[in-house]
Structure formats: structure tokens, C-alpha cells
Amino acid sequence: MSSLSSGNNLDYIYFSQDLFKYVLPSGVPRKSLIVLAGEGGSGKSVIIAHIVKDIISMGEPVLYVALDDDPQTVINQLSSFKTNTEKACGEKKLVIIDGFSYLVKPKRLNYCVEEEITPDNPESIVSTLIKVADKYRLENRGILVIDSLNEVMVSLDPTRFILFTKSLRANFAKSRGIMTITTLHTSTQGFREYLLSIEHLVDGIMETASIPGELAQQIPIFIRQIMVRKMKGVNSKPGWILYGIDNEGLKPVMLKITGSSK
């Protein structure tokens, strides 16, 4: 991503990954709350890792709320896609809020963790994030990643979950201009219904999916598909788009289908 080059509108983040140049050619408004939804194994972690890598590479900070997994696993995942996590953590370009290790006894400290939270206390989550975001002056720069909403969702009734989502959008995307990206696993119908319940509250929804098994067996590289269902304020490519990953990152994939000649 590069939002700081000459002539670009600083109210937008312009993605340098070829996939996002293709599906979101006009960039994304900085003041956006975006949900990245999909079933397990559909590519959400790969997309998040590349977004984090690109934001850090352009010199902006990432505030990463780790709810699904422990901080070291998050760091290992980012490192596997060539993010220099040790440097990023040392320079506070990557700051982790640990919402996983409250389950671990005894506690294991991680050099990249700034604060610890529990997913069943939404008010505490928001206040902790506000404190850290303001400490590192994230206003109109950087992104907030929450991975994932499911961990908060299962602890709250639908009304409190909706209020939590609205609070994230109000306090970070809107009032502070911090693009906020949350993942949401939709492996069950119940989780899918939660996505529908907040669809009108968020600025963007991107869905990921695996490709049919027969097709996957014929392709020797990582291929998944993505669709921008909603993105306020910008144009997006309609429909499902296949994408793959190579040494340069995420790229759209065009398959040439050939038939037998008679």
C-alpha cells in the first residue's frame, strides 16, 4: 500500500498489492470499518498478513488485537510473509494487544505486547485500544486489526455485540481516522447471521472463499477467491475474483479454460 506518495489523497489508503489494485482501484477511505469475512481456510489470514506488511513498509503503525491466537503465533505468521517483526515491534510499528493469553497459566511475556485484555469485556477492550492508539498518535495514520470478532461475539448477546461494533467504528474509524479491519469467521449459519446483523453498520465487507475441490486439485499454487460486497465511497470490481500468492504478494488470477476441439 502507498497512501503517502505525491498527488495521492491522504484521506484514502491506496493498495499496492496487485489484487487490491484490481478489486479496489480507487483505494479505500481511511475512515472505514471493514469486515473481512469467510470460512476457515478461505485466505483471511494471508490477506491480513499482507495488509499488515504493506502498512508497516510505508512507515505507518499497526495496532493488532490478537484474540484468535497467541502473540507469538501472530508474529510467526507475519514473519512467514517477510515482515521484519523484530524491527517493527522495536520501532512500535507493530503493537499487539493480547486477548488470548489470559487463558495461559503461567503467563508468558512477549516483547511485542503492549496490553492484555479479555474478549468478554467490550468496554475494557475499547478503552484499552483508545489508550494505546492515543499513546502512539495513530490519528489519521496506521490501521487497527482485530482478529477476530468471533471471540467477542460468543461472549455477548446480539445487542451488546452491535453496540461494540458501533463503538469501534465511532472511536477509531470515524473520530480518529484509523482504518479498522476486523476478521469474522462465518463457518456456521449463526456466525453468518451475525455478519448480516452488522452489515448496515460497517463501511466495507470483503468475503473470501475457497475454490471447488476439483479445481483446486488441478492448480499447483495457493488459489482462493474474494468478493467486495460493500465499500462505501469508492468503486470496486463486482463478483468473485480469484487470487493467488507469489513472491511479490497477492495477485488476481485469470484462468484460461480450454475445451476439446472436434
Helix-strand layout with pairing:
Elements: E1 12-13, H1 18-23, E2 28-29, E3 33-38, H2 44-57, E4 62-66, H3 71-80, H4 85-90, E5 94-98, E6 113-116, H5 122-135, E7 143-147, H6 149-153, H7 158-174, E8 179-185, H8 189-198, E9 204-209, H9 213-218, E10 223-231, E11 241-246, E12 249-252
Parallel strand pairs: 3-8, 3-9, 4-5, 4-7, 5-6, 7-8
Antiparallel strand pairs: 1-2, 9-10, 10-11, 11-12
Helix pairs in contact: 5-7
CATH class equals Alpha Beta
Radius of gyration from the CA trace? 18 Å
User: What is the structural class?
Assistant: alpha/beta
- Report strand order across the widest sheet: 6-5-4-7-8-3-9-10-11-12
Mean of all residue-level pLDDT scores: 89
Question: How many H/I helical runs?
Answer: 9
What's the total number of strands?
Answer: 12
Description:
The chain is of the alpha/beta class and 262 residues long. It has one domain: Rossmann fold (3-Layer(aba) Sandwich), CATH 3.40.50.300. The protein has 9 helices and 12 strands. It has helices at residues 18-23, 44-57, 71-80, 85-90, 122-135, 149-153, 158-174, 189-198, 213-218; strands at 12-13, 28-29, 33-38, 62-66, 94-98, 113-116, 143-147, 179-185, 204-209, 223-231, 241-246, 249-252. The protein has a 10-stranded mixed beta sheet, with helices on both faces. A two-stranded antiparallel ribbon has the order 1-2. Helix 5 runs parallel beside helix 7. The termini are far apart. The relative contact order is 0.19. Residues 1-8 have low confidence and may be disordered.
